[in-house]
């Protein structure tokens, strides 16, 4: 007996995809770099269908019917190339390699072109839905040639989620189209999660509600037009209590959101295409801001709004001048931070104070202002952020009430002020003692077992969300 499809890479996603194929009556060849995982899969789940365990790549390939369909489920990047290099020489024209990981679409295009020359089909496919989805029905976004879809599509449609009997799987388009669409899906996922986190933060800090109360609010919303998987799991995460401390779970999670790259890629691709994906970009940057403890710590003492911030009778012109000045400071702080990060990354040893010095005259952004930046770096070469330098700190402290009024006015009057508004959000993000990034970590752990860190002890942890909801070390 030969297998209709094979899966190599049997970590949780690969294992669950293999089981899903088997549960749908397909014979599945299974292979893993170390045979232990393969054996484990067959021992634990062999009763669910027909698996053909293979110890070697050769055995694996020999057990597949033609055209061979080889699903690889390994880490994106080098591991994917390594597996392709291992299998491609064993395959024959017309066979296909299906990359079901979160690859960058440019890598997928490159791999497709290279394998086409050997007569092989390469199908980069998005698979969404986390571990549970892979087992019970994911959404599947295959790219690659129409011929490959003709031979592969029916199997994928079999194991995909169904809505009113219709499979959540379609041939997206040729070469990298599938992985491109999966990337944007993840970008949207980031934006969705960030918006939910902001909603929670507002209800908590402005509304004064507890996580348990907010969980109920989300449960209510989930029954209405906001009904969605992410809102549903948010309610679950917010109602979870930490067994060890008795505190709300979201309060023991370190508020630094992690990311594996797909959101960032979406923004990079959007910049290349000239498409304004500002919501996705804000979400990616909010994660990056949360994940920079050094700058956040340095900025922790920055002043917040004064008690009279909302008071009326303001002079719009004077307010706008203040908003302009404060937002300008933020823009320079961000730019200089980017220069410092690149300098560290590439070992350039750039002196940021020197940059300020040579920009004081001659160039387009020349201004008196740059002298203060130079002075700030002269005083403190390792400045974490311009915002914490005395001069800029005082300037923003003095400007911020007006700045907040301007952003509120812009919002109320329907005047787009993305520069002012996002600069203010950045300022408030940096100085926040706690960020709702902790909730994002909880969501990521819920749907993808991506783990989180605790505020009270080192190590990475995972909560068994689909099980007894106990916490285990990762
Ligand atoms: C999915 C998810 C999945 C993964 C994310 C997590 O569609 O099932 O998007 O692909 O969990 O890539 O991304 P981060 O680790 O970057 O948050």
UniProtKB/TrEMBL annotation:
<keyword id="KW-0570">Pentose shunt</keyword>
<keyword id="KW-0560">Oxidoreductase</keyword>
<feature type="active site" description="Proton donor">
    <location>
        <position position="189"/>
    </location>
</feature>
<comment type="function">
    <text>Catalyzes the oxidative decarboxylation of 6-phosphogluconate to ribulose 5-phosphate and CO(2), with concomitant reduction of NADP to NADPH.</text>
</comment>
<feature type="binding site">
    <location>
        <begin position="9"/>
        <end position="14"/>
    </location>
    <ligand>
        <name>NADP(+)</name>
    </ligand>
</feature>
<dbReference type="InterPro" id="IPR006184">
    <property type="entry name" value="6PGdom_BS"/>
</dbReference>
<feature type="binding site">
    <location>
        <position position="102"/>
    </location>
    <ligand>
        <name>NADP(+)</name>
    </ligand>
</feature>
<dbReference type="GO" id="GO:0019521">
    <property type="term" value="P:D-gluconate metabolic process"/>
</dbReference>
<feature type="binding site">
    <location>
        <begin position="32"/>
        <end position="34"/>
    </location>
    <ligand>
        <name>NADP(+)</name>
    </ligand>
</feature>
<comment type="subunit">
    <text>Homodimer.</text>
</comment>
<feature type="binding site" description="in other chain">
    <location>
        <begin position="185"/>
        <end position="186"/>
    </location>
    <ligand>
        <name>substrate</name>
    </ligand>
</feature>
<comment type="similarity">
    <text>Belongs to the 6-phosphogluconate dehydrogenase family.</text>
</comment>
<comment type="pathway">
    <text>Carbohydrate degradation; pentose phosphate pathway; D-ribulose 5-phosphate from D-glucose 6-phosphate (oxidative stage): step 3/3.</text>
</comment>
<dbReference type="InterPro" id="IPR006183">
    <property type="entry name" value="Pgluconate_DH"/>
</dbReference>
<dbReference type="Pfam" id="PF00393">
    <property type="entry name" value="6PGD"/>
</dbReference>
<dbReference type="GO" id="GO:0050661">
    <property type="term" value="F:NADP binding"/>
</dbReference>
<feature type="active site" description="Proton acceptor">
    <location>
        <position position="182"/>
    </location>
</feature>
<keyword id="KW-0311">Gluconate utilization</keyword>
<dbReference type="InterPro" id="IPR006115">
    <property type="entry name" value="6PGDH_NADP-bd"/>
</dbReference>
<keyword id="KW-0521">NADP</keyword>
<feature type="binding site">
    <location>
        <position position="444"/>
    </location>
    <ligand>
        <name>substrate</name>
    </ligand>
</feature>
<dbReference type="InterPro" id="IPR013328">
    <property type="entry name" value="6PGD_dom2"/>
</dbReference>
<dbReference type="InterPro" id="IPR006114">
    <property type="entry name" value="6PGDH_C"/>
</dbReference>
<feature type="binding site">
    <location>
        <begin position="74"/>
        <end position="76"/>
    </location>
    <ligand>
        <name>NADP(+)</name>
    </ligand>
</feature>
<dbReference type="Pfam" id="PF03446">
    <property type="entry name" value="NAD_binding_2"/>
</dbReference>
<dbReference type="InterPro" id="IPR036291">
    <property type="entry name" value="NAD(P)-bd_dom_sf"/>
</dbReference>
<feature type="binding site" description="in other chain">
    <location>
        <position position="102"/>
    </location>
    <ligand>
        <name>substrate</name>
    </ligand>
</feature>
<feature type="binding site" description="in other chain">
    <location>
        <position position="190"/>
    </location>
    <ligand>
        <name>substrate</name>
    </ligand>
</feature>
<protein>
    <recommendedName>
        <fullName>6-phosphogluconate dehydrogenase, decarboxylating</fullName>
        <ecNumber>1.1.1.44</ecNumber>
    </recommendedName>
</protein>
<feature type="binding site">
    <location>
        <position position="450"/>
    </location>
    <ligand>
        <name>substrate</name>
    </ligand>
</feature>
<feature type="binding site" description="in other chain">
    <location>
        <begin position="128"/>
        <end position="130"/>
    </location>
    <ligand>
        <name>substrate</name>
    </ligand>
</feature>
<dbReference type="GO" id="GO:0004616">
    <property type="term" value="F:phosphogluconate dehydrogenase (decarboxylating) activity"/>
</dbReference>
<dbReference type="GO" id="GO:0006098">
    <property type="term" value="P:pentose-phosphate shunt"/>
</dbReference>
<feature type="domain" description="6-phosphogluconate dehydrogenase C-terminal">
    <location>
        <begin position="178"/>
        <end position="466"/>
    </location>
</feature>
<dbReference type="InterPro" id="IPR008927">
    <property type="entry name" value="6-PGluconate_DH-like_C_sf"/>
</dbReference>
<feature type="binding site" description="in other chain">
    <location>
        <position position="287"/>
    </location>
    <ligand>
        <name>substrate</name>
    </ligand>
</feature>
<feature type="binding site" description="in other chain">
    <location>
        <position position="260"/>
    </location>
    <ligand>
        <name>substrate</name>
    </ligand>
</feature>
<dbReference type="InterPro" id="IPR006113">
    <property type="entry name" value="6PGDH_Gnd/GntZ"/>
</dbReference>
